TrEMBL record:
Organism of derivation: Populus tomentosa
Keyword Disulfide bond (UniProt): yes
Alphabetical keyword list: Aspartyl protease, Disulfide bond, Glycoprotein, Hydrolase, Protease, Signal
Active-site residues, record numbering mapped to chain: D124, D322
Protein name in the entry: Peptidase A1 domain-containing protein
A GO term, aspect molecular function: aspartic-type endopeptidase activity
Record-stated family: Belongs to the peptidase A1 family.
Signal peptide: 1-34
UniProt superkingdom: Eukaryota
Length: 441
């Protein structure tokens, strides 16, 4: 199908869909970029959907500040609502960043410093470090953390043990400074510490990068909080408090409020959730790998070569759960097998493509379910996790794609759209990942 076949009323949603496709490219590339640091994969040029290079950059948008203000007003009600529902203090509301910071990630509210300054930080479960735009930063957005106003703020020196955990530290004077890339951005930050609180429990002396200079458009405007498995991540730094255990429910990315939740610590996690073992890859220590053994479309187990799914720490092959990618990517032979069976089940309707999606329909369809068969855990996706619809409901596409050829395409990524409205438990001490359906949009 082409854009000409769309009526004027649906053109906005069509643009939105293109934006999704573009951000998909961006996300995958940023993931690929993140992974290439260990000498695997290649460097890929990326740009963000709202960058100046993007043809889909909206000509008129509501300002970021405006949308944040609006959301904060709603958010206040949401917080009160949540605290009335859940007495456990370690539940943090999660919102889709798309509506709030025009970023494809999910965000949480963090209180940083003493007295606390509120920042809407992006979550990234495939990244370890945290950074916050600090006052004086060149290239950051207008919302920054004012270090001078915090009585608990400290700069870490080159001798600090945390300075050995960052990649390529530069010691300028006594400050531990480091230069890193994230997606299309380069970020220069000082390694610093301050109090940070996502829930009612403040974490003292949290080590993070205080951004001095940022280029490119991949930096989430109010900072990023890494929930990976490696040193310096939120898990590692809150080990005593939250025991390297958390879960989240990601709301639909069309939801504009903080209706999702991030649950920190072993208390309050679903006790009988079905789980699959977490696998460890020393070469990509931040990532949450699991064993995907097969995929069912409807009741049929599709024919996928074992090598397409096998975990291999040396090449990085295998399957991860990632919060920063929107649409699931499967290595080509796996994707093709799934897509072919999906098309067969849908039947006669004409298949078209749209951007990176190759299985789209412009008539209503009855979609089969898709089941990911992990070791000890089958997860069946309902249509809401499988189909992306134009707002007008004219077009729907299977919201998955083959891993792009130009990156190290050995990784299957279970992405956020497929995780939406599920509770995903990351239980590092017991080395398991749990999945259960939960409506949080
Ligand atoms: C950080 O990296 C950028 C881009 O690679 C480079 O231009 C800059 O000089 C670096 N800064 C420091 C302090 O190393
Ligand atoms: C980073 O550290 C240097 C040296 O201590 C300092 O001059 C600079 O202001 C710091 N930058 C930020 C953004 O705090
Ligand atoms: C959040 O948004 C959804 C729809 O997007 C709505 O149904 C729900 O009531 C909202 N929740 C709050 C607390 O505003
Ligand atoms: C998953 O589904 C397959 C095929 O239907 C079945 O053989 C297997 O026992 C199921 N596994 C679990 C853990 O339910």
């Amino acid at each position: 199908m082409t854009s000409q076949s769309l009526n004027p009323q649906s053109s906005f949603s069509f643009a939105t869909m293109k934006a999704y496709l573009l951000s998909l490219a961006f996300l995958l590339c940023s993931l690929a970029q993140g992974l290439s640091t260990k000498g695997l994969g290649t460097t890929v040029k990326v740009f963000h959907v709202y960058s100046s290079q993007s043809p889909f950059r909206p000509s008129k948008t509501i300002s970021w500040e405006e949308s944040v203000l609006q959301t904060m007003a709603k958010d206040q009600a949401r917080l009160q609502f949540l605290s009335s529902l859940v007495a456990k203090k370690s539940v943090v509301p999660v919102a889709s960043g798309r509506g709030i910071i025009q970023s494809p990630s999910y965000i949480v509210k963090a209180k940083v410093g003493t007295p606390p300054q509120t920042l809407l930080m992006a979550l990234d479960n495939s990244y370890d470090a945290a950074w916050i735009p600090c006052k004086g930063c060149v290239g950051c957005s207008s919302t920054v953390f004012n270090t001078v106003k915090s009585t608990t703020f400290k700069t870490l020196g080159c001798g600090a043990p945390q300075c050995k955990q960052v990649t390529n530290p530069v010691c300028s004077g006594s400050t531990c400074t480091w230069n890193t890339t994230y997606g299309s951005s380069t970020i220069l930050s000082n390694l610093t510490q301050d109090r940070i609180a996502l829930s009612m429990d403040p974490v003292p002396n949290y080590a993070f990068g205080c951004i001095q200079k940022a280029t490119g458009s991949s930096v989430p405007p109010q900072g990023l909080l890494g929930f990976g498995r490696g040193p310096l991540s939120f898990l590692s730094q809150t080990q005593n408090l939250y025991k390297s255990t958390f879960s989240y429910c990601l709301p639909s990315f069309r939801t504009l409020n903080f209706s999702g939740s991030l649950r920190l610590g072993p208390v309050g996690q679903p006790p009988r959730i079905k789980t699959t073992p977490l696998l460890k890859n020393p070469r990509r220590s931040s990532l949450y790998y699991v064993n995907l053994n097969g995929i069912k479309v409807g009741r049929k187990i599709v024919d996928i070569p074992r090598s397409a799914l096998a975990f291999n720490p040396t090449t990085g092959a295998g399957t991860i759960f990632d919060s920063g990618t929107v649409f699931t990517r499967l290595v080509a032979p796996a994707y093709i097998a799934v897509r072919n069976e999906f098309r067969k089940r849908v039947g006669k309707a004409t298949v078209s493509s749209l951007g990176g999606f190759d299985t789209c329909y412009s008539v209503p369809i009855v979609a089969p379910t898709i089941t990911f068969m992990f070791s000890g855990l089958n997860v069946t996706m309902q249509p809401e996790n499988l189909l992306i619809h134009s707002t007008a409901g004219v077009t729907s596409c299977l919201a998955m794609a083959a891993a792009p050829d130009n990156v190290n395409s050995v990784l299957n990524v279970i992405a956020s759209m497929q995780q939406q409205n599920h509770r995903i438990l990351f239980d590092v001490p017991h080395s398991r990942l749990g999945v259960a359906r939960e409506q949080c949009s």
